[in-house]
Amino acid sequence: MVQHVSIWPVLVLAFIHFFGTRLRFWAGVPRSIWLSAAGGSSVAYVFLHLFPELSEGQEHIEQAFPGEGFLSHHVYIMALLGLTVFFGLERSVIDSKKENKEEEGVYVPSPGLFWLHIASFAVYNALIGYILFYREEGPLRKLILFTVAMALHFIVNDFGLMDHYRYRYRKYGRWLLVLALIGGWSVGYLIEVSHTIIVLVLSFIGGGVILNVLKEELPEERKSRYWAFALGVIAYAILLLSL
């Protein structure tokens, strides 16, 4: 278990939830070039740093869960699951908005869906919080790269949730996400799980990152700038490959 633990990564990510959406230059349509660049950077981290690491961890998975066929690719199944879960949530939000628009004339999702959506992201944040604690065992470079990538990813998520829920997210949602993040990190003091579980959790997070970034870039009404997204990918990829 980790003996010397730094709290700064958790504070950085909590700061994003507290103050990220207050930075007005990130908001508006056309989509902020900074948001697109942040999304590109976090996706670059997943493909060039996280997935290669998970590929190495697949050996632990195969020893823990021996199997044939698709069961021998647990890492990629979990990444696919993460992508699928968050795609389902986003689809539910969009459908709920359309239904409320037709029935009540207001283009907002139902309150119940807000709590389901926030609960899902709270679990997601708790997993990331625990991974932050786990990352303390490795080189400082890994911890810094992971924290920066997640900070950029959190900014993208926060503006997406603000777009859906407005005051509900500002008043309730962000606080719950901060508590979940700190709670997940704190669990590291109490529970030590196997490397196999860590790899599976990282896989799920990787799939979630990819979906949550792309869903914010693709809608036509966002008028996102591809060049900014690509610049974020290239810049962070160069950084990752040079270290």
TrEMBL record:
Put simply, this protein is called: ZIP Zinc transporter
Residues spanning the signal sequence? none
Q: Which source organism?
A: Pontibacter ummariensis
Say if the entry is tagged with keyword Cytoplasm: no
Q: What is the lineage of its organism?
A: Bacteria, Pseudomonadati, Bacteroidota, Cytophagia, Cytophagales
Q: Where are the transmembrane segments?
A: 6-25, 32-51, 71-89, 110-131, 143-160, 172-191, 197-214, 226-242
Sorted alphabetically, the keyword list is: Membrane, Transmembrane, Transmembrane helix
